[in-house]
Design a protein that fits this description.
16 helices; 413 residues; mainly alpha
């Protein structure tokens, strides 16, 4: 009985909140479906779900959707074609009925979906402005091409090596291209939405969750497009590093909470240091900020291809080194893997520790080696791809983060 009453209460609140929003969005008398109807639709959905009788559920569903169609026809007749009332309210009513049906079996999902629906309805004006004013046709075309490549072409590529030397994996190379393209496109969108100063920093963090190495490999392209926003570009590099460290913490925590306890303090100090440096860099950028540069294309295909080839060749070198050195040396493997695959090495080390194949001391040392290697790869990318002054300033920031982690590691262990 309490569970059933709770389901009806949740459905009542879902119908009430979405119904109130719909009432406020239209003039009085225009919409036939109001807040009371929304509440009743949600409660009908819950009732049909609890009774769980297929014929009755079909009858109730047909009744609800016929009432939605009737309400739309009535609203259209009242408006006398003077205004375009749309079908948002009718679609919302159908979703409310479905959410009410979902509540008894999946309350949490229903609440989350209803919150998303309510957010979309409340922010309708901003969404219209975003679609009509912010994004241009060629930007939408680029997004469509990117989605087709990521979801249509990528899954059908062979996920195994195809060369006699067992080095080239088409799927992995395509993943690199998609990653670099995603970072560039995300950067373009965030800069359009938030401006160059904060947009590039946000791009660095989001890209760092995918691949901090790819972010650093793309810094030269970003700096070339935004030469007057050097501090923001460095801030994006710091946030990419911070995102990498946060992801490592999450991976270690999921794999082994005991190992997470050992690594928590050094990693959290490095994350806090990166955040402080980012705040300082962005505050400095405000003094030097200039007019926004018009970026013609969301993606630079030449830069994407060059960066992907650079990383792919480095991956091949790592594979060759592993093959000739062997996997017996855990520190050598951790170092080589940390150059480009820090997340995979972190997970593998944590799982080996969890299975008692590694002692806590060995696992901590292996993880520290992998993190050090990831910083070394960033230094190499900076000094080989970006101007010397920019590389020096960014390297100093990275050294501060690394030094804070090393000092904490030394004090703790």
């Amino acid at each position: 009985m309490p569970a059933i009453l709770l389901s009806f209460t949740i459905s009542f609140l879902i119908g009430l909140l979405i119904g109130i929003e719909r009432e406020h969005s239209h003039e009085e008398g225009v919409q036939a479906i109001g807040v009371r109807t929304f509440i009743l639709f949600a409660l009908l959905g819950t009732l049909a779900s609890i009774l769980n009788q297929l014929p009755l559920t079909l009858i109730i569903s047909m009744f609800v959707f016929s009432m939605i169609i009737f309400g739309y026809l009535r609203s259209s007749d009242k408006s006398r074609k003077k205004i375009d009332i749309g079908i948002t309210t009718e679609i919302s009513a159908a979703i409310v009925f479905c959410l009410g049906y979902m509540v008894p079996a999946s309350r949490f999902v229903a609440i989350i979906v209803s919150a998303l629906v309510l957010l979309v309805l409340i922010e309708r004006q901003r969404l219209h402005a975003l679609a009509r004013k912010k994004f241009k046709p060629h930007e939408i075309e680029t997004a469509i091409i990117f989605v087709i490549f990521a979801l249509g072409i990528l899954p059908i590529l062979p996920n195994h090596t195809i060369d006699p030397w067992d080095l080239f994996n088409p799927y992995n190379f395509a993943i690199l291209i998609v990653t670099i393209a995603a970072i560039q496109f995300t950067g373009y969108i965030t800069i359009r939405l938030f401006g160059e100063r904060f947009g590039m920093a946000l791009t660095g963090f989001l890209g760092g969750l995918i691949s901090s190495t790819a972010v650093f490999a793309n810094l030269s392209q970003t700096l070339r497009i935004h030469p007057h926003f050097k501090f923001s570009v460095i801030a994006s590099a710091m946030l990419a590093t911070m995102a990498m460290l946060i992801e490592i913490m999450a991976i270690i925590f999921v794999a082994s909470s005991t190992l997470f306890f050992f690594m928590f303090k050094p990693l959290i100090v490095m994350i806090v240091t990166a955040f402080i440096l980012t705040a300082l860099l962005l505050s400095c950028q405000k003094k030097n900020e200039k007019a926004l540069i018009n970026i013609k294309s969301p993606l630079n295909l030449s830069s994407i291809l060059k960066t992907s080839i650079f990383i792919a060749l480095t991956l091949v070198l790592v594979v060759i080194a592993k093959r000739y050195v062997g996997t017996e040396g855990i520190f050598i493997v951790s170092f080589l893997g940390g150059l480009l695959e820090i997340h995979g090495i972190s997970l593998a080390t944590a799982l080996l520790y969890l299975d008692h194949h590694l002692t806590s001391t060995t696992a901590i040392s292996a993880l520290s080696t992998a993190i050090l290697a990831s910083f070394i790869s960033k230094f190499v990318l900076l000094w080989s791809l970006t101007p010397a002054r920019f590389a020096l300033e960014t390297s100093l920031c990275l050294l501060i983060i690394l030094f804070s982690g090393c000092m904490t590691y030394w004090l703790v262990f």
